[in-house]
Amino acid sequence: MFVGLAGLLVYIIVLRFTSGYIMHSTRNMICKAPLPNTKYDETLINNGADYIFNCANIASIKLVRLLGISIYKKTYLGEYGSGTKVAVKMLNTSPGKTPNYVRQKMLLKEILLLQELKHCNILKLLGFCIRGNEFATESLKDEGALAVYEYGEEVHRNISFFTHLPLLQRLDIALAITDLFIYLENSPLGSMGMLDNAFRHFLWNNDTLKMIDLNGNWQEPHCQIKDNATCELNVTCVDGRCLGHNAKHNLLRIKNLLLMRLLMDTDILELERNATGQDKGRRQYGLDALKLLILMLNENPNAQEVTFTWVRQRLLDVKSSL
To answer: Dihedrals φ, ψ of 229, to 5°?
Structure first.
């Protein structure tokens, strides 16, 4: 078991140092969230350019309480320094059908993905420590595999969470999420297709939504070459793959977040009544774009032209008119 763990860790290190040669079309969309302020704790040691926690200092985090449990991991609220909050993940070793080596693999895969994919709307990995196969010790000094992340609030169960936010802020959040999915569609690892409900994979951090789970399909479905009938969701078969399937699948999963949460309670009629003078034409253009966006996502999200890029342009049209 330990040999398999060490082998996967070597793979992570090799891929980390070779990934700089990967070029992709969304390089200009990569953004990095700022690291937490570490001036209150002089024991923190930088773990490379991107990380502030490693095996030497990870025990400086104080575990406060359990945040959640999944099949392969437990997540704790942690604090360090003067009380800065972080999320600490470790293996869930409770009895079950999933062997511990599979749970190790899932946690290491998550670390690997977050090393390769950098976007400001992906919750930032702050560090990790891989020591061996000692698990369920409940001690940050001894636990065999740990990862530390930015802390975010869970909001997917609160249907009214966004109602107090101004429309412009909600549009900015919708644009950020749309940009994230365009980035994932063209990522250096391939096009990601989410496996289940998209909204529960986001947390509220730094006044925006950030994705916390990158588990998904990283290849488009197979299809018969030049036979578009074998592809669902109105996409085209290219080189034996249904090109655009994962992105369209993601759009279907995310549309309720865009419509029911971020664009909810938008009084279009009131906005139209308030449009006067020279701004009336510009305002109406944006409101027409909003109406079209809501209509297409509600009634025909499978239309060929309805992509994340199309959604992004409609959101920009709305924002520029307000």
So the answer is: -65, -20
Place of tokens 């793979």: 11
Work out how many domains the chain is built from and give that number: 2
Residue 237 sits in a domain whose CATH number is: 1.10.510
Question: Which of 220, 290, 229, 291 lies closest to 250 in space, CA to CA?
Answer: 220
Contact 150, 53 (CB under 8 A): no
CA distances from 196 to 129, 184, 309 (A): 29, 16, 22
Q: Where is average pLDDT lowest: 15-24, 117-126, 200-209?
A: 15-24
- Asked whether the predicted pLDDT for residue 10 surpasses 50, the reply is no
- Taking the complete model, does pTM exceed 0.70, yes or no? yes
Q: Do 68 and 178 fall within a single domain?
A: no
Predicted pLDDT at 13:
42
Residue with more model confidence, 46 or 289: 289
Beta-carbon contacts of 46 under 8 Å, excluding residues fewer than 6 positions away, are 52
Tokens of 101: 């080596």
How far is Cα 185 from Cα 84, in angstroms, rounded to an integer? 33
